[in-house]
């Protein structure tokens, strides 16, 4: 893949080629591929400590070849913990020219050219195109027994304001549920969350220039499938195929 994008030095009013909301597996993979294809990419995560977090404590092997996640998994060996994978993915993203990895909470999208991302902290972020890759966090509700938490995974806050904003813009949201087994002494839990319509080209109907990717879209997903979808969308957005 190409690697021609300089690392951006964003100032107020800076317009990115692409903003990716959510730095899970799908979002991280997409941002990495788009930057290698020459794009100036903003990758927004509500916490830099949860980049590429998994639902499982150990990393399944292997991920699809040529992916960021497989590179990170191999670098982390012999450690197969999800935390080791997180460290390597974060390291590789921060070492990639063209990726600006930002900790911020996106609460809304204002249509236009460029698109404007509203944040909980206040400053707007501008981009020509936006990809939502927010996983199970779109109005996520986590249940442990009879206890409920506003989260998409243990102790990780949900995107309630973003879900509200999308509904105000007449984006239809469905509902999905995931279950996580108890591992390493932790309790099992389930997550109910909202999902966006899944389309062949990943475009979000009604919001021009906005796309949706990964677990936040309707249907069955696996670690491998969201990485393959990220590669496909990166190719469509940049014209550079893996």
TrEMBL record:
GO terms classed as biological process: tRNA methylation; tRNA wobble uridine modification
Boundaries of every MnmG N-terminal domain copy: 17-54, 85-168
PANTHER family in UniProt: GLUCOSE INHIBITED DIVISION PROTEIN A, PROTEIN MTO1 HOMOLOG, MITOCHONDRIAL
Lineage: Bacteria, Thermotogati, Deinococcota, Deinococci, Deinococcales
Highest taxon listed in the record's lineage: Bacteria
GO molecular function: flavin adenine dinucleotide binding
Subunit structure: Homodimer. Heterotetramer of two MnmE and two MnmG subunits.
Presence of keyword tRNA processing: yes
GO cellular component: cytosol
InterPro entries to which the protein is assigned, alphabetical: FAD/NAD-bd_sf, MnmG-rel, MnmG_N
UniProt keyword list: FAD, Flavoprotein, NAD, tRNA processing
Listed Gene3D superfamilies: FAD/NAD(P)-binding domain
SUPFAM superfamilies per record: FAD/NAD(P)-binding domain
Record-given protein name: tRNA U34 5-carboxymethylaminomethyl modifying enzyme MnmG/GidA
Keyword Cell membrane: no
Cofactor section: FAD
């Amino acid at each position: 893949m190409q690697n021609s994008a300089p690392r951006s030095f964003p100032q107020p009013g800076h317009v990115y080629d692409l903003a990716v909301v959510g730095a899970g597996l799908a979002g991280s993979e997409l941002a990495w591929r788009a930057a290698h294809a020459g794009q100036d990419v903003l990758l927004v995560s509500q916490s830099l400590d949860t980049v590429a977090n998994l639902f499982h404590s150990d990393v399944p092997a292997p991920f699809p070849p040529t992916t960021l996640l497989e590179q990170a998994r191999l670098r982390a060996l012999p450690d197969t913990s999800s935390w080791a994978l997180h460290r390597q993915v974060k390291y590789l993203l921060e070492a990639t020219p063209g990726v600006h990895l930002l900790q911020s909470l996106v609460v809304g999208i204002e249509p236009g050219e460029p698109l404007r991302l509203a944040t909980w902290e206040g400053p707007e972020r501008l981009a020509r195109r936006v990809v939502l890759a927010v996983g199970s966090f779109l109005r996520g509700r986590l249940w442990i027994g009879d206890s409920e938490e506003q989260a998409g995974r243990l102790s990780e806050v949900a995107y309630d304001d973003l879900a509200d904003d999308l509904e105000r813009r007449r984006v239809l949201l469905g509902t999905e549920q995931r279950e996580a087994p108890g591992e390493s002494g932790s309790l099992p839990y389930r997550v109910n969350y909202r999902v966006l319509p899944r389309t062949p080209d990943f475009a979000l109907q009604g919001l021009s220039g906005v796309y949706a990717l990964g677990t936040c879209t309707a249907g069955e997903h696996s670690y491998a499938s969201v990485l393959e979808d990220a590669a496909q969308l990166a190719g469509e957005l940049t014209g550079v195929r893996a």
